[in-house]
Every structure is written in C-alpha cells, then in structure tokens.
C-alpha cells in the first residue's frame, strides 16, 4: 500500500477498518478536555467499558450470596478460572489443558522455575537476552543464588553486536551451542520490552532443547500482540501478564503455559497447594497432593476472583475478534506510524529519528522504539502535555505502541502533526 501523510488518507483507512467499532468500547483519558492519543498499551492497556459489568457481577454475587457464590453464582467462583482455558489457548496457540491463570507474572516464572530449573554441578547455566526486563534479571539472580551458584558464572547474556540495536538469531543459536552441555535453561522475553524485537521462538526453542535444556518464554510483551504457537513450537513453559495488550487492569493476574508433554511427569518438581489438587476431591481435604491433570495442576492458591473478572472481560473480547484480525490491523497501523515518522524525519531539520525496532514485520509486533537523536526528555514531556501518551526509556527512547483494539489511523496522522509542531517550535 502507498501511504499518504494526510488526514483524509488516515480517515479512509479508518473507514475500512474492520475493528473500528471496538475503539468505542474503551475508556480514554483526556488532556485539556480532549481525548488522548494512547501509545502505551504495551505498558497498561486501556479499560474496556464492559469490564465494570464483570466486576459488578462478582460484587453483587458477593453481596447477595456471600460464601455460596463459590457454587451458586452465574459464574461459580470455585471453577471461575476454567473459563479462560479456551480463549487463552487461542491467543497463545496452545491446547486448553496447557494454559491457566494465577498469581502475577514474576511469581509465576519463579514457580515454573521450580519445575524447569533444577541445576546440577555440571548443568546449571541460564541463557537470557541482554537488557532483559529488570524483574527477569532479578529473578535469574535470586534463582541461581538460591541454588548455590554465582550469577556472574551461571547467567549467560546474549549481547547485541557493536553498533546494532537488536540481537541476531545466529548469535542466539551460537551462544546456545557454545554453552552446550552446561546449559540448563533458556528463558528469554519473546518480545524485547526495550526495542520491540520479536525473537524466533520456534527456532530458539528447538536449539535449546537439542542441548538437553528446558526452554521457557516471558511473553509479557507478546501475549495479545503477536502470533504465538506455543504447543506446536514445543515450548516447555511460558508466562505472561494480562495488563498490557490484554487490558485487564494494573498489576493484574498472569497467564501461564505448561506443555502437555510434562503433564504426566511425576518426577517434575512443583510447589503444591489446594487449588492444584484434584478438583473432584478438593473439598474432601485429603492430606496427600493429587494434582489436577494439565496446567491447572500448577495452581497453588484460591483464585482472586475480583482480579480475574476484568481479565475474563478482556479475553472474551479477544475471542470475538480473533488474533488474525488483530494482527492484520497491527501490521498496517504500525507500518503507517513508521511511515509518518519517516515523513517527519525528511521534512524537518533536526528531526533525526532512529527506529530501533526491526523493519521486518516478522520481527516486530505493534511497538516502535524510537531513538530521538538531538531531542531529549523535554520532547517526551511536551508530547504528554499535548495529549500524546507515550513511554520514555533511558537514555533517549520513546516507545510507541498503536494497539489495534483502540488506536486509529487518524491518531497516527494527528500524532505526526503534533510531533512536527513541537520540534519546529523547540
């Protein structure tokens, strides 16, 4: 498609947008009395309007039924989480028995590492990417220390080449082969939070497993954003938060995946709890743990229903639309935003932008990380005051994520006009 940097062209794309009605299903903040242009769905998604209905339903059941809500509400609480199995499996490319919801992201990664990181004196190293999200870095450090290893030795980071913004696949594969028999675990962010680079999860998973290691993925920036096929890629485990592209609310519950090949492995360690116990016998209060078959057998505690209600509202919205349609719009709107940035770069002296995110659509989702040469945090702050909600990352990067559920093509055009004006009036 040949793009044009005009409002009329942007409006024509919106008129053809199959998902345009969903924009009205979200609450937008306002700045100076005007609805914002929202680019931070990669940090916290907007609130769907239907969320309140789901939360109110739980609150009303609690008020009217009290403890009996566990069994007699319209969506009984004791198996509330089972409603996520089908929609989540479609979002991440899994079987319904391979996915579940519990806790929050880093908690789930720690719990999954109980099963999938059991180092020995000769097989103890973890491969991750350079500049992994800090929570992952802290998790790795604490895990290897817990097992008695030195993080400087046990944690192997795959680094970018000098002068390059992204990590090359061949460098990932070379590092996996180099670590070889010492490799216990590969655990990488499926989409790098800083650059927006999408890793080749299928190829990396196979390479790690060829060395006898487990391979897991932190899908915080991937779930609800990119096409995932966790079952077919033979991924051992994964976890993701729900408050970014899946719009479930701040700090909300995490989804997780455990491949079915591990479901019957009685030698695989796990931390146990009441809600992971055999569902049919759970209320018999038996002393010995008998795990639920499937991913739900990794659950520990009673589920936080008030947190799950907004998440359920969101995944049911995903089920209505499907990932294929979201990805089709994501590709087009991200390409249009990229075009707008390049146009401004050409038009204005001093607008020296470097897009760190790969240009290849197969290697990115809906985030563009833009290095602002010659600009500073002041530009970011002025954008915010002008109703453009973006995300700042040191030393000089703004992250722009045009989430396809609620961002419009006219938003992209309007952003370009605001950005051009702010740079011109610097």
From TrEMBL:
Reaction catalyzed: L-kynurenine + H2O = anthranilate + L-alanine + H(+); 3-hydroxy-L-kynurenine + H2O = 3-hydroxyanthranilate + L-alanine + H(+)
Binding-site residues, pyridoxal 5'-phosphate: 105-106, 133-136, 218, 221, 243, 274, 302
Upper lineage: Bacteria, Pseudomonadati, Bacteroidota, Flavobacteriia, Flavobacteriales
Family statement: Belongs to the kynureninase family.
GO molecular function, one term: kynureninase activity
Needed co-factor(s): pyridoxal 5'-phosphate
Biological pathway: Amino-acid degradation; L-kynurenine degradation; L-alanine and anthranilate from L-kynurenine: step 1/1; Cofactor biosynthesis; NAD(+) biosynthesis; quinolinate from L-kynurenine: step 2/3
Organism: Flavobacterium lacisediminis
Name used for this protein in its record: Kynureninase
Enzyme class: hydrolase
InterPro entries on file: Aminotrans_V_dom (IPR000192), Kynureninase (IPR010111), PyrdxlP-dep_Trfase (IPR015424), PyrdxlP-dep_Trfase_major (IPR015421), PyrdxlP-dep_Trfase_small (IPR015422)
Gene encoding the protein: kynU
Keyword Hydrolase attributed: yes
Keywords of the record: Hydrolase, Pyridine nucleotide biosynthesis, Pyridoxal phosphate
Role description: Catalyzes the cleavage of L-kynurenine (L-Kyn) and L-3-hydroxykynurenine (L-3OHKyn) into anthranilic acid (AA) and 3-hydroxyanthranilic acid (3-OHAA), respectively.
PANTHER family (UniProt xref): KYNURENINASE
List of residues that carry N6-(pyridoxal phosphate)lysine: 244
